[in-house]
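Technical note accompanying the year-one report. For the benefit of new consortium partners, we illustrate the data format agreed upon in the data management plan: each record pairs a sequence with a structure-token string. No post-processing was applied to the example shown here.
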Amino acid sequence: MSSQLCRLCGEPLKHTFIDLGISPMANSYVKTERQMEYMYPLRTFVCEHCFLVQTEDYETPDHIFTEYAYFSSFSDSWLQHCRTYVNAMMERFGLSTESQVIEIASNDGYLLQYFVEKNVPVLGVEPAANVAQTAIDKGVPTVVDFFGTRLAESLVQQGKRADLLLGNNVLAHVPQLNDFVAGMKMILKPDGIITMEFPHLMKLMENNQFDTIYHEHFSYLSLTTVCKLFEKHEMVIFDVEQLATHGGSLRIYVTHADRRDVQLSHRVSELLDQESQYGLTELSTYERFHHQVVKLKRQLLSFLIEQKNKGKKIVGYGAPAKGNTLINYCGIDRDYIDYTVDRNTYKQGHYLPGSRIPIYDPEHLKQTKPDFLFILPWNIKEEIIEQTQFIREWGGRWILAVPELMVME
């Protein structure tokens, strides 16, 4: 039994979801081959009461997020997703120059920049100073801090309350879930709306997305669990959308529970029913996940060994956190993958944590002409294949490992 308590309901955690062995922090890129780095157990548990899946705690958010290597703006498809979101929210909720939009974990201003273009007042909240500075340079006002009740109270005292409060892929990064949501309630205007996007636990399990588990992701969320979380703080999820982003995400729409002018969408009850039918309220469903992951690991390693024994050159594309989980869990190093490439200049010239696989600019591919390009950020595989069509000139092929091993020509 774990000594940890559930972050949502406070009950002791007794059941393992999956144990991925020992791993470094997935976004802690190494500057030199001889640099020392810390390794931590990467084990997750499921709560038998609210079915929240969460990691064991080893590092604080201050250590993980104060300087961060992830810049959202390096993905063209993600930027298009955000532009579409902004247009939809403007139309659905009638946002104007009189509105206040606040984004939690606003990163490099990737999304708020589109509200700025429409002259809607915005405020970003971003704990990573290096990333926040990029947003500020774009003209996106940003507070460098962690969000919670302390910051929410301070912002309210300054007259900052949100008509639209949003957070994309942040809820999973929060260890103090109840303080975080309590802060959201404080800063939301009486008639305000919250939208949040997060990877859907059901899709993670359906599609073997074990590589999305890493220390920076403290929680793994279903609609069933998130409904309980917001209900605890007197808020209600009145609508939900299923998105293709990050291998299958949810966008929830939330408001204060005492509002009488908001209609509950049928999509909420329908998705709750789907989760129940899938088995997300039964512990046996969670216990089966481990076997799927082990099978995939063995298939991937067998393929890589076979190709390397034939003298084939295999390199990676991308240096995402999910790729580091997969590589370290499977025991992959430079014996299997010569190097990887990434458009993020912040990562180039560094090494992947744990495996010490070097990271180069994508132009390096044209110099070495690899036989296989292993796509690590599979969630943007279409974008990557489009950008690397040139590998066909020498007969190069693409590899995907999630949801299953696949080779594409």
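Partners are asked to follow this layout when depositing records. The chain has two domains: 72-286, 300-408.
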